[in-house]
Every structure is written in C-alpha cells, then in structure tokens.
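Cast an eye over my tokenised protein here and flag anything odd:

===
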Amino acid sequence: MGNLTREDTALTVQGTAVPLIGLGTWQLRGKQATDGVRDALEIGYRHVDTARAYGNEAEVGAAIAASGVHRGDVFLTTKISPSDFEPARLKAAAEDSLRKLDTDYVDLLLLHWPNERVPLERALQALRELQEQGAIRHSGVSNFPAPMLERALDILPVLADQVEYHPFRGQDALLRVARERDVMLTAYSPLARGRVARDRTLTEIGEAHGKSAGQIALRWLIEQPQVTAVPKASSHERRLENFDVFDFELTDADREKIAALRGAGAS
C-alpha cells in the first residue's frame, strides 16, 4: 500500500485520531476471534471493535496482548448492553469488560442500543464518571437516530455513533449531525451482509479500479467526512482485502452510480 502515514489512514474527530478501517468482531468466537484479531493486527489494523453482547472480549483482549502491538497504538471499542444502563450496573459491566479485555482502559465505550427505560442522562453520567476515572478515553452511542444523538450530545460530548451504513442504506440525518458537531459515524455491516459483493454496479466500478465490490463500498464510506468502517471478516484473505483501500480514489461518476443504489429498490 505504499508509504502511508497515519494521517492517510485515520480520521481526526474531536482531536482524536481513529483509524478509518477497523476490524468488526461480531459472530467471531473462541479461537476464530483470537486468531482473527491477531491476524488483523499483523496486517496493519489498529482499530478493533467488540461488545459485551458478542461474547468475545476475552479472546479480543488476549489477541491484542499477544500481538506485540503496543496497547496505545490500538483503538479499542466495546459496548454496554441496554440491560446494564443503570449507573451501578453500567460501571460494573465496564469493569468486567476491562478485566476480560485485559486492559486498563478502552478507547471508546458505547451504549449499544437505545433503552427508553433508563433515562439517557443517567447512563451518560455513568460514562462521564468512567472517563473521569480513566477507565474509558471516550464515550459514545450505537444505533441512535439523529434526534437521539443530538440529545446525547447536549448532555455529553460523545465521540461516536455506530450504525449500520452501506451503499444501500442511507444515514443522511446522522451525517449532518456528525459534521455539524464533530462526531464520528462508524459504519457496521458496511458490506451489507454480503449484498455488496453481489451488486453489479459495485462490481463494475471495482473492475475499473482493479478492486472488489467490497473495496469499493469501503472506499466510498471512508472518503466521506466523519466516517469510519468496521467490517467483519472471517478469513485472512478478506481481512487483507478490506484493509487494502488506501491506494485509489473514486471518481465523481463512481459516486453518482453508488448514490443511485439507494433509489433502486435498496433497503
């Protein structure tokens, strides 16, 4: 990929550099999770995303510890389940995550889904206190629609909202908030659970660049201001492919074709 600098492969949001491409670990369990994270770090990934609900924090932590990569060079995200949003439960869950991840802190702790049964102020205050204690570097949310993200930002300067985002699913309202208020939008399922690979338009654009349809979708995402992506990959080849998106650029014509996918019966 040439002599890329950190600036070439990272987004700076609220003064914090976050690698544009991370490894999503949903559905990776046991040895597959440990080996996958280690392999990703060897490839060059420095952004790893997990969650308590994924049941793989211990494996993710073991892989990072055994990788030889300095902990400070890895941007590590995990998420708290909605059932643990009451402050005492949230703090206990965060402490348990730190033990499982074998780390003194996580770079980003997200509220995994909205939970209307617990006032947002209470959950975010617990995150604020964890930040003040140094257990987490940044707070964030996941699966929050734009109005709820704005409400959260009025309570606490959250760093990120992680949502499903790919060429077939728009996030225009969230992107407006992200750009107005310097928030990161992290795209999960950026390859639309296999739909990207089957799309003729993305495949044709990829052929013009010597890239796969998946690489086109990932490049489309990370070329957008405030956007990072955390594709899951179960094989070395796919992890390598997903990371190899920094040596080309899309054309305006490419972007127009991709924008049209949402209006062509896309979900």
Q: What stands out?
A: DSSP finds twelve helices and ten strands in the chain. The mean pLDDT is 95.
